[in-house]
Prior knowledge:
The chain is α/β, with parallel strands linked by helices. The chain has helices at residues 57-71, 76-79, 82-98, 100-111, 115-135, 171-184, 199-211, 225-234, 247-259, 283-295, 315-327, 347-362, 394-397, 413-421, 436-445, 478-482; strands at residues 23-25, 28-30, 37-41, 48-53, 143-144, 150-158, 161-165, 188-192, 218-220, 240-244, 264-268, 274-277, 307-311, 366-369, 384-387, 404-410, 428-432, 450-453, 472-473, 486-494. Strand 7, helix 6 (171-184) and strand 8 form a beta-alpha-beta unit.
Amino acid sequence: MSGTGEPNAKRSPNMTEVKFTQIFINNEWIDSVSGKTFPNINPCTGDLICDVTEGDKADVDKAVKAAREAFKLDSPWRRMDASDRGLMISKLADLIERDAEHIASLETLDNGKPVTDARGDVGLTVKCFRYYAGWCDKIQGKTIPIDGDFFCYTRHEPIGVVGQIIPWNFPLLMMAWKLAPALCCGNTVILKPAEQTPLTALYTCALIKEAGFPAGVVNIVPGYGPTAGAALSEHNDVDKIAFTGSTEVGHIIMQAAGKSNLKNVTLELGGKSPNIVFADCDLDHAVETAHFALFFNQGQCCCAGSRTYVEESIYDEFVRRSVLRAKKRKLGDPMSSGVDQGPQVDKEQFTKILGLIDSGKKEGAKLECGGDRHGDKGFFIQPTVFSGVEDDMRIAKEEIFGPVMQILKFKTVEEVIERANKTIYGLAASVFTNDIEKALRVAHAVRAGSMWVNTYDVFRCNAPFGGYKMSGVGRELGEYGLQQYSEIKTVAIKVSNKNS
């Protein structure tokens, strides 16, 4: 066993069978060139689930070679009718739906999220693949009436070999957000899942093969960011890199792309999203939605509503109700029904969150509830609420990525807009008010890629998602997502006699 993690962890008994743990290249499961593996840890217990093959640069080189071969001119993938490509993606969606319960259980085992949430992720994954399956034969160029005796038109062509690096918070769904549009446009892919949560991506490999995708079209290489991820980002034969994760790593990937072959880059990065609550809102609804906005998925959401700004006149009541709601949150075995919150994904994240909670206490925020670990095993953290939070505190500036709610006070519309925008991030935001004029004022003034009014976390596969500022580059989902995976070629043909 090699790599980081828990090298002396005992094996975790579980009811979910893990069938695939190797690298997937050219529609085959193989060991790494180095022969190394890394431990996959159960976040509920800290015990070992299984050992997973550890890919690095040598394995990425093999995967890129396979993807390049699958993308070569006149290959079966390049010659395939767009409608048939759509049918193949649709078949993959059907297979995921067929195996939904096993995949959801595998996701919960690996990630720790409640199995009810994992089932929801599977459903959204199926919808995403079906949505992009329908787009395959609808990607169209234009004819352009340029001056002179020419016939001019544009083609939307696949970029080529695409590297994709996905996070651990929504492993299956983020795989779909990446794979579906890339395959829709006719690219070939090397995907690196997060080392904490590789199991659902590796299981999906079997379904990709069963669906009939040609060898080399999809290749999946589990491994660590500084080795396998870096090899993808730096590779001169990778035409595009798409990454979802931290802003810190986004910087590294952008730099690697620039230093290598100036590959196309899409980044979906961190956030510190403002959730603005005005006194004229439906208070019960705002409290419940703000709770969901922060605590959903154990707080492990890039767009979590992690700066809750509440108007002064209702601040104390909002805090009181939010604390009561947090205390009702049920922690426990995520495979059990009725559980609202599972563990954080790993020990590193667990330790980071507790450190930020400690900073909130030291900097003068009032700890209303929680603030410590839950239980004596695994990576569970109590639902935590801070009041009296100021903008310059670490918990108000840094992305915590955990079940820690910060509630800040404001007086006026202009003040809260200015404070909401005073951040390096710009991924999402929300506003709660019954005044449509006020809602529109805030929605148009806050610098964020997604803005929700009297709701939160509204994601649909046909609506784009992405960030302003240091929250990312480009957009995923919807028709906009296709633009990230195609090149536009202009063709001009000399003709002897042009007529209108």
